[in-house]
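Subject: for your reference before the review

Hello V.,

The reviewers asked for a structural picture of the protein, and I figured it would be easier to keep everything in one thread rather than splitting it across files. Below is the amino acid sequence we used in the manuscript, unchanged from the supplementary table.
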Amino acid sequence: MSALRAIVVEGVEIPEQLIAEEAQHHAAATAGEARAAAAHALAIKALLLDRARTLDLAADPETDADGREETSEEALIRVLLDQEVEVGAPTDAECRRVFEARRSHFRAPELYEASHILLQPTAEDEDGWEDARVAAAAVLENLIPAPGRFAEMAQRFSDCPSKSVGGSLGQLRPGDLAPEVEPVLAALQPGEMTQAPVRSRFGWHVFRLDRRVPARELPFEAVEDNIRADLEGRAWIAAASHYVEDLAAAARLKGVALSLRPEGEVAAGALSLGDLLADTSGVAERMEAWLAAVDPALADAVRAHIADKDDTFASLVRGEVATFVRSADDEAWTKLISAARDADDPALACVAVILKTKLTPPRQMFNLIKRTR
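And here is what came back from the structure prediction:
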C-alpha cells in the first residue's frame, strides 16, 4: 500500500484509487463534492465493518421485496446496527402532538370511480387515428339517448380489458390515469359522460364519471400507526448517526485507526500513528540527535525555542505530540502519513513534521493589487 497515495478520513486511511471508484456512485454538484462524499462513505463503512468483526458478529444476507440480495458486508452492518442502536418507542402523547401539529397533512386524497370505452387506432398513421375517432364518436352518439347501455357498449366495442366489467376502471386517485384525460374527468359530474371522444396515447376514449369522493381529513386513529412508524424511523436514524459519530471520534483519537486495502478490505491502521505518537518515551529521547543529523536547521530552531521557554527538548516533543494527537484533523494526519511512509523511522519523521509546523513561521502573503477606494 506504500506505493499508493492515500488520505485519512475519520481515522481511516483510504487509497485515492478507491475514492475515485466510489465517487462514481455519488451524485454531486462538483467532482470535489463527489470525492468527499465517497471518502466519507468508505470511511464509515470501514469503521462499521471493523466494529462488527470486533464483536465477532455473523450475518446471513437477506433478500428484499424486489428480489435484491444484500452483500455479506451489508448484512454484517445491518446486524451490527440492529444490535448496537436502540431507540425507545414513541409515546401516545408524542404521536398525538405530531397529529395536532400537522393535522392538515393527514388527509385521504380525492377518489373517483370512472368507466370508459376505448377505441384504438388500427394503424399508427393519421388515417388509423381518424378511423378510431369516428368509431368512438359513433359509440358516443348511440349512448347519448341511452346512457344506460354504457356497459353493453363497452363489452361490444371497447379495446380495453376493462370491457369485461362494463368498462369500469375501478377506484382511482388523481394521477392514476394519463395526464391528458385527468382534466376531462375532473370537469365531469357523477353520471355525466364526455361530450366528445377524448384522445390519449392509447387511443380515443368515451368516459363516464360514476362517483366522486372528496378529499377529507383523517381521524387520529386512522393514522396513528403511520405516525408511530415515522417517529421510530426518525429516532433510529438519529441514533444510528450518533453511533457512527462516536465510532469516528474514537478512530480520530488514534489518528489512523484503520486502513482500506486497494481491493477494499479493512485492515489495521498501516502506521498506527495515534498509538505510535502517543508513546513518546523513546521518541522524545532520540529526537534531538536524529533531528540534528537529518535537519540541522530545524534542530537549531527547536533549541532556540526551548531556550526562550526554559524547556527541554524531550519535554517539548512530548507536549507538541500530545497536542497534535488530541486536535489534529484528517488533513493533518494525511500529511503525517505522507511524511512517514518511506522513512526509516516513521515516528521520528512524524515528530519532525509536527515540530516544523509549530516552529516554522507561515509564509507571508503579499497582495500585488492595490485596492482603490
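For the response letter, the relevant points are probably these. The CA atoms of residues 111 and 173 lie 5 Å apart. Residues 6-87+226-268 form one domain.

Happy to draft the paragraph if you're swamped.

O.
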